[in-house]
Design goal:
11% helix, eleven-stranded mixed beta barrel, 223 residues, Porin, single chain, mainly beta
């Protein structure tokens, strides 16, 4: 059973890589990040997440750092607020070096509900943000609502927890849904405070019918 889940996760990620490389109109992003969680008080936590993103097609890169607070209102409900600073290297013909470094800011507020049903943990998150994660590729800085449904499964006697989720993006300006993101992956627990997460996501843009592939490796640590 354990080998089956490892092989399944590896196969799905490799399938996504293959699809990304073979698709002509699709874009992709390779990402590495760290998630640092610090307990400040009962129910109150601080999260700091530095991240690096690289686009193989355009050779462009982004550096991000996000910080925020989350508070557990009930055993099954928590709320949070976050600020993100994004720095991107972009091609600029007017620059002496042929490129320039641009920064942008993002704010987000969300509410997350989750419960445990035996070894399954379904989750639902509603988030407001002032622009989408795919701003660089869509050139669209409108306000968004994001609705995410996720499911984790805790395998008995196994440190790998597989997960899957689907997320929908709604433009507040028009009220229309513009894209969806499908994610699957696994979190491997090194110990009670450290874990490694590997995931693959595909985002479908409704207007252009293009897809955006995301491959991410993340390290999680709790204090």
């Amino acid at each position: 059973m354990k080998k089956f889940f490892i092989l399944l996760l590896a196969s799905l990620v490799l399938s996504g890589v293959s699809a990304s490389l073979n698709a002509q109109n699709d874009e992709s992003s390779l990402r590495t990040s760290a998630n640092i969680g610090i307990k400040l008080a009962k129910g109150l936590g601080l999260e700091i997440s530095p991240e690096y993103r690289f686009d193989p097609a355009s050779k462009s890169s982004e550096y991000l750092i996000e910080a925020g607070l989350n508070y557990k209102i009930l055993s099954w409900l928590s709320v949070g607020g976050y600020y993100r600073l994004d720095g991107a290297k972009v091609t600029d013909s007017e620059s002496e070096t042929g490129s320039s470094f641009q920064t942008s800011n993002r704010f987000a507020f969300d509410a997350t509900a989750k419960v445990s049903v035996k070894r399954f943990t379904p989750k639902f998150r509603v988030q407001y943000c002032n622009f989408t994660d795919f701003d660089k590729t869509t050139d669209d800085k409108t306000h968004y609502m994001r609705y995410k449904i996720a499911l984790d499964y805790n395998i008995k006697g196994f440190k790998l927890t597989p997960f899957a989720s689907v997320e929908f993006y709604q433009k507040l300006k028009t009220g229309l849904f513009s894209q969806s993101r499908y994610t699957f992956g696994g979190e491997y627990e090194l110990n009670k405070k450290n874990a490694i997460v590997l995931s693959y996501s595909i985002s479908d843009k409704y207007k252009t019918l293009d897809s955006y592939h995301i491959f991410e490796l993340s390290y999680k640590i709790k204090f």
